[in-house]
Amino acid sequence: MSDRRSEFEEKIGRLRGLIAAKNWAWVALSRLDSLTWVTSGAKCFVDLGAESGVATILVRPDRVILATNRIEIDRLLDEELQDLPLETAVCEWPRWIQDQADFIREITGESPITSDSPLAGFQVEAADLQALRFSLTAAEQRRYRALAKDAAAALETAARTVQRGEAETTIAARINAEIAVSGMHAPVVLVASDERVFKYRHPLPTSKTVDRYAMVVASAARYGLYASVTRLIHFGEINEELRSKSRACAEIDAVMISATTVGTAVEQVIATALEAYASHGYAEEWKLLHQGGAAGYRSREYFAHAGCRHVVQDGQAFAWNPSITGVKSEDTILVAASGPEVITATGDWPQIATETGLERPAILEL
Asked: Is 0.90 surpassed by the pTM of this model?
């Protein structure tokens, strides 16, 4: 049995376990992130901006069916799903567009359908289905580590080539190009220069040109998994106020990463972060940007906050992004029983040693 087929059957087993626990009849997976998860990264899409893929996978205790339309079936079976044990059900494209839900009901009969998306008449249980993928398989973790290294290397390569007087949009184009070369795509690319770093937490790139300081951010995906990274660069000597903020932000980030251990309540990680903000003299800064959260088949599977009821799982990914006005620290981590691992660390960027013993990215002086 291929590794991919073994992984697929493990995930189908998780779905069947949930079906049994909830006394469901059928599960329908139509969301792009769900399809990518269950198929180990198959390209079940045409438009990456769409919420749903171009197929639905139907699961019950004794059957797994790929439902799609005549346009997509050959490519999916020839190039994406050829080694997976799937029955197929195909309709003509007008029916898929006009009444996909009716086509699926024709396959499943009168039994109720539980879905990850609101197709007409289906019971939506997206949160329960999403949670099945939080604990990543060993194969997923291997793919994630490779993706994360490539994503960080691409962003850092682009960051090192920034020139004074260059437009933010030009820098963003270079980031996208570096990411694409490694077989990834970037749904999020942010670039801010000089005063925009201090004004905006989510700075979409503009025609403004860089003078002394820039922040570059990317969330890059491959095989459906997302790695998020932020890096800061500065031309010439960094003033002490900015350097001090950078050190404080690094300490907060290191505390958050260190607190992200198997079995810890996510709200406790946030409480630890808020204490760290206060202890470094920036008690109100956390209010100006979300602090990140769980990662995986979305850049954030969920955002962490006080009152968040999730618990850190073995094999789960997180991307924290604490910020103080003018600086931010962000990498993607994997959590295991042995502790958190920063998987977007390349070993080729200046670091700040923190009190936790972890190193966090410094501002690169160009």
From this structure: yes
